[in-house]
Amino acid sequence: MIIVMKKNCTREHVENIIQLLKEYGLGANLSTGSQTTIIGVLGDKTKLSDANLELMDGVEKCVPIMHSYKLASRDMVPEGRTVRVGNVTFGAKKVVMIAGPCAVENQEQILKAAEGVKAVGAALLRGGAYKPRTSPYSFQGTEEEGLKMLRRAGDETGLPVVSEVTDHEQLAFAEQYCDMFQIGARNMQNFRLLREVGRTGVPVLLKRGIASTVEEWLDAAEYIMSEGNCGVVLCERGIRTFETATRNTLDVSAVPVVRERSSLPIIVDPSHAAGKAAYVEPLALAGVAAGADGLIVEVHPNPKQALSDAAQQLTVDAYASLFHKAAEVARAVGREI
Ligand code: PEP
Ligand code: MN
C-alpha cells in the first residue's frame, strides 16, 4: 500500500506516519517528488486494519499496490528512480551506452576494447569474468584475474566497469573491482544471489531470464531491493520464442511495459537478442526508439577470435556506426547520448 500525502503536508505529518508504521512493525519507503510525497508501506498491510491512516493529518489517500513487487513498482516512485554508477546516471535524459567484450580474455584485449569504445563515446565498460556458459566444455572465463584486468582497463580509460557475478560467494571479491554487478539471464531467479547482491551497496544490472515474464522479472528486482539495495537497472536481452532465425527474440514491448509498471531504469541488450553482428545495430536503434534508458553492446577488438559469443560481437568501427545512429534516434525521442 502507498500513502499519498496532501500537497501542503508538513515534515511533521510525514514523520508521524513513519513513526506510526514503525509502531505497527512496518517499514516505510519515502518518495518526495516535485508534485507529491508518497510513503510506501513495507510489510503486511493487514496489520493496519485499525489504524485509520486516512484520518491522519496530511494524508490525501491510501492506495493498495496490486502487484507482488512494491519497491520496484511505479506507484511507489511515480517520477521514476535514477541509478548512479560512478559519474553515470541511469534513468535521466541521457541514454547510457555500455560496451565491451562478452568476456575479459587477457589484458591486451580488454584494454584495446576499452580504448576503442571510450574513443567512440561509451560511458561504461562491460566484460564478463565469470562466464555462465551453456556447455561445461566452453571457455568458462578468466574469473578473478579477469576482474583485475577489467578494473585496470577501466581505470586507464576512466570508464566505470560492469561485470557478471554468478554465485554469491564471488561477491566479496568482485565488489573490490566492479562499479556495477550484472546478474545474467540464467541467474535471474537465483534468489540467494539476488538477496546477497541486495545486501551490498553495489548497483545491479538485472537481465531478464530467457523465459521470464515481466512480472517475474520485477519480482526478481524486488528481491534485491527488499534487502536495501534500490540501485537496480533492468536489462531486456531477448526471450526464447519459437523463432530460430535470431538467437533470442528482442521483446521491444518490454520497454514501455516496464516503464509503465516500474520506477526502475530499463536498458536493452541487442547483442544477446540478435546473436549475429549484422542484426545488432537495428535492434539497438529499436530499443532507443522504444524509450530505453541505455544500451549494452558487445564489442571486441577482433570479434573473429573472440573466445565467447564471436558471432554477435561488433568491431569498434561497427560500434561507432551504431553509436552515431543511436544518438540521432535518441534526439528524435527527446533524449540524448
Ligand atoms: C553476457 O552479458 O555476456 C551474458 C551472458 O548475457 P545473458 O545473461 O543475457 O545471456
Ligand atoms: Mn555474451
How much strand? 15-25%
- Span between N and C termini? 36 Å
CATH classification, class level of the largest domain: Alpha Beta
The count of DSSP E runs of length 2 or more, i.e. the number of strands, is 14
Q: Enumerate the distinct ligands.
A: phosphoenolpyruvate, manganese (II) ion
Mean pLDDT: 96
SSE order, one letter for each helix or strand: EHEEEEEEHEHEHEHEHEHEHHEH
Helix-and-strand structural type: alpha/beta
Low-confidence stretches: none
Strand order of the largest sheet: 13-12-11-10-9-8-7-14
Q: Largest sheet, described in full?
A: 8 strands, parallel
Radius of gyration: 21 Å
Query: What is the number of independent domains?
Result: 2
Overview of this protein structure:
This protein is elongated. Helices cover 33% and strands 18% of the residues. The protein folds into two domains: 2-63, Alpha-Beta Plaits (2-Layer Sandwich); 74-333, TIM Barrel, CATH 3.20.20.70. With 337 residues, the chain is an alpha/beta fold. The protein contains ten helices and 14 strands. The protein has helices spanning 11-23, 107-120, 143-157, 171-174, 191-198, 214-225, 254-261, 270-274, 277-290, 316-332, and strands at 2-5, 27-32, 37-42, 59-63, 83-85, 88-90, 96-100, 124-126, 161-164, 180-183, 204-207, 232-236, 266-268, 294-298. Bound molecules: phosphoenolpyruvate and manganese (II) ion. Manganese (II) ion binds next to loops. Manganese (II) ion binds at residues 102, 272, 298, 308-309. GO terms for molecular function: 3-deoxy-7-phosphoheptulonate synthase activity; aldehyde-lyase activity. InterPro entries: Aldolase_TIM, Class-I_DAHP_synthase, DAHP1/KDSA, DAHP_snth_FXD, DAHP_syn_2. Residues 91-328 form the DAHP synthetase I/KDSA domain. Its EC number is 2.5.1.54.
